[in-house]
Structures are given as C-alpha cells and as structure tokens.
Design a protein that fits this description.
12% strand; DNA binding; 353 residues; Rossmann fold; 14 helices; single chain; 2 domains; 7-stranded parallel sheet; transcription; Arc Repressor Mutant, subunit A; alpha/beta; carbohydrate binding; 11 strands; two-stranded parallel sheet; Transcriptional regulator
C-alpha cells in the first residue's frame, strides 16, 4: 500500500556560488525546510482523512471531530488526497508514514504491514471493529478467481466477515481451517455463519469442517483423520492460496471465542500456562519463541499444524489491541504471517523491538 513519496523541486543550492548568491541561498534553506515539512504534514493529514473516509466509512463530521478540525478542512484534505494520487481503488500509504523503525520490522519478519489509524481513546471493541473493517476492504486484493482461502473462525474473523465488500470470483472456494464443536454445542451455527458471509461476498463455494475443535483423545483424531471425507477437507487446506486468521490469546481484553465459549476447561488452561503458551492460530497453540510441536493440547487440536500453515503463500493476520502483543510476537517468530493488518497503537509495540 505504498504511495509515491512527495517530492519538492528547487531544493538544491549552489554551495560554492560565492558572494550574495551564497548568502541568499543560506538564508533560504530554513524557509525551504519549513515548506517541505508543511507539505509532508499535509500529505500525512490527507492520508489519515482518506483512510477514515474510504476504509472506515466515517462521515466528514466524525472525521473532523477526530482530527480536531472543521468539516470543510476534511473535505479539502480528501480532495487533495484524490488529486495527489493517494486514493485510487484503495488507500495508499506514502513513504513518509513508513518510519525507518517500521521498515526494519517489515524487513526483519518478511511481512507487509498495513497500519489502520485508530484514535488512542478508542476502547478495545471499537478498535477491533475499525481494524476488521479495514481488513475486509484490503482482503479483496488478495483473493480472486480460481483460488482457495482458508479461514480460522473466531471473534476477529466474525468482525471481518460483517464488513466484507462483494467481489465476483469464479471457481473459488472458502475452507474452514478448524472444527468448532465442543461439549456444549456443535459450533456449526457459529462457524457456518462466518464462512457463509465470506462465500456470499466472493461467490465462492464453502467447505465446512464439521469436527470438534479439540478431541478428548489424540487417538480418536488420528482415526478420524484417516476417513476419506475428512482427508478431502485436509487436502483442500494443504493446497490453499490464502490463509486468513486472527490471533487468540489467554489474556486479551476482548476474549477470543475459543477462550470464552466452553472450548477449554480448567485442566486445559493449566496445561497452557505450564507450557508458557502466548497465543493460538486456528486452535493450535504456540509459545513466545514460535514453537508449538510439544504443546500437549495441540495433539488434540483440529487446526492445521503451524509448520503447514507457514507454507501457504499468503498468510493474512488481522490483530488489534496491545493485549495481543505477546501473541503477535510469537506468531512472527513462527513465521506465520506475510501480511499484517494492525492498529497504530499495537504496531508501536513492534517498533520498540
């Protein structure tokens, strides 16, 4: 989402011109530097206004209140964003917004970071909704005809599914990555509603995965995994083009569905704590260093092994809230992410690395 860097002309001066010319050049340098800073600030403000208007559906009045300016100023910023080429089909981020520190994060983890502007005053629920809305708009760039997208159900994906933009595709399919049943419910209604929204938005065939989220016995899972009907779904998962997921964590301010809806009992939570688990993707748990192979509960989990997930060509992670920082760092350590859609406050935690 990189936009052209704003360049200003006429900034070079002749250092050895001598006499009055050299004196005048020296006097003009601070003035030109100030003009350059003002131009960059205008680009920054135009980008933010455009992102809030086009990606988050805020009204101009709401944007004016958030930016502490007038509605007419917001209108001019949005017009400038269009004229300057910041807005095409998507909101583009100019180079000035990608700091050197953020570029290091991208290079270190081999990820593309899509930063969603959210005011610091927003609570965790509103923050999630804003990030989910932007993720829904961005997602259309990644999914097209003749592609398969795997989706890990959860609170974040539920929020994303409510904001999807229709896009016509052909011969495409959506596959559920992990089962949703537990001892209280089959999970079919919850998971199928999320999957159906994605299928409807993209005109894609939906392949559900009607198995428990966690098996009581690993042996039962192994037996079921040998069934041809289940192997067919597992094979679709192995060949998906895009994986889309949020990050679960035991300590989030907005509890993930798997942690709050009867999927884990007291013994499970104790086991996760003993294993130093910081998060999960598709109900497969991992530690801060990204390791997951010897976490006991994973032998009973229905989600794909994380090393398999890491082989998918595009892996889109949607995350919001500082409470998910340990889970985000662990997912990056496990090389699970190629595209990260995240709010400003959360990404600042990565800049401190």
């Amino acid at each position: 989402m990189n936009a052209p860097v704003v360049e200003t002309s006429g900034e070079r001066t002749a250092e050895h011109s001598g006499g009055a010319d050299a004196s005048n050049s020296t006097e003009k340098r601070p003035e030109r530097a100030a003009e350059h800073q003002v131009a960059n600030e205008r680009v920054r403000d135009a980008l933010r206004a455009a992102h809030l208007y086009y990606m988050q559906d805020l009204t101009m009045e709401a944007i004016a209140a958030e930016l502490h300016t007038s509605r007419s100023s917001v209108s001019r910023l949005i017009s400038y964003a269009r004229e300057a080429g910041l807005v095409e089909i998507q909101v583009k981020t100019p180079a000035e917004r990608i700091s050197t520190a953020l570029q290091r994060v991208q290079d270190k983890h081999h990820v593309t970071v899509h930063v969603v502007p959210v005011p610091d005053s927003a609570n965790e629920v509103d923050r999630l909704e804003r990030v989910a809305m932007s993720a829904a708009r961005i997602l259309g760039q990644f999914f097209d005809s003749n592609m398969t997208m795997g989706i890990a159900w959860g609170s974040t994906m539920s929020a994303v599914s409510r904001h999807l933009q229709p896009k016509v595709t052909h011969n495409s399919q959506i596959v559920q990555l992990n089962g949703a049943a537990n001892t209280r419910t089959t999970g079919i209604v919850y998971a199928s509603e999320i999957m159906s929204r994605f299928g409807l938005a993209y005109g894609a065939y939906v392949q559900q995965f009607p198995v428990p989220a966690f098996f009581d016995d690993p042996a039962t899972k192994q037996v079921l995994w040998r069934e041809r009907s289940i192997r067919r779904v597992l094979d679709i998962q192995k060949h998906m083009d895009v994986a889309l997921f949020g990050l679960g964590t035991p300590n989030s301010e907005v509890p993930g569905h798997v942690y709050s809806s009867g999927y884990l009992d007291e013994n499970d939570f104790a086991s996760l704590a003993a294993s130093n688990v910081v998060g999960d993707v598709a109900t497969v748990f991992y530690r801060a260093d990204g390791s997951s192979a010897d976490v006991p509960i994973n032998s009973r989990a229905s989600g794909p092994p994380l090393d398999q997930l890491a082989r998918v060509s595009r892996r889109v992670c949607v995350v919001s809230g500082k409470s998910r920082m340990p889970a985000l760092r662990g997912a990056l350590a496990a090389h699970l992410i190629t595209d990260l859609i995240v709010d400003e406050a959360t990404v600042h935690g990565l800049l401190d690395e």
